[in-house]
Amino acid sequence: MVIDNIYNSAELKMSKSVEVxxxxxxxxxxxxxxxxxxxxxxIDYYGTPSLxxxxxxxxxxxxxxxxxxxxxxxxxxxxxxxxxxxxLGLNPIPMGDTIRVPMPVLTEERRRDLVKISKSEGEETKxxxxxxxxxxxxxxxxxxxxxxxxxxxxxxxxxxxxxxxxSKISEIDKMISHKESEIMII
Length: 186
Hints:
The protein is built from five helices and six strands, in the order αββαββαββαα. It is α+β, with helices and mostly antiparallel strands. The strands form two sheets. A four-stranded antiparallel sheet has the order 3-4-6-5. The protein has a two-stranded antiparallel ribbon with strand order 1-2. α1 (about 1-25) runs antiparallel to α4 and α1 (about 1-25) runs parallel beside α5 (about 150-185). It starts with a helix and ends with a helix. One of its GO terms (cellular component) is cytosol.
């Protein structure tokens, strides 16, 4: 009933936070090329900001090079400029109708910076999960105060919310340690 709704809502919100973390971690470079690195880059398409995947075909040439082929030739300059000005530190090279984006070799210092960024993303997600837990617990306490639920029900829901919180925190930790090992592999 009400308890199930609170639990399901908490679990759904926490799962969404973890999904956002997955997307953010996918944007962090590991030294290998993958097309997802460019997914968040927006291109000015006739005055409308559009994702790169909507105005060009993004593919891999080899393990260290991404190829971007615009659907319209006149978009080549806009795409190149957007990639260059992104926060990725990439240097696109126009070659005829396509743009080659070579992935620079990561230095040890840059790898450590990327690990720090990954851990920071993980901590932000953990904070979001804990805030969801706190909001749900506050709601349950308010319901107890207004005598909508009993003390036993309050304890049950708080225990179940704590269990889902612990499982999500554990999942976040696993994702971060996996990303860290992925980044540090040379």
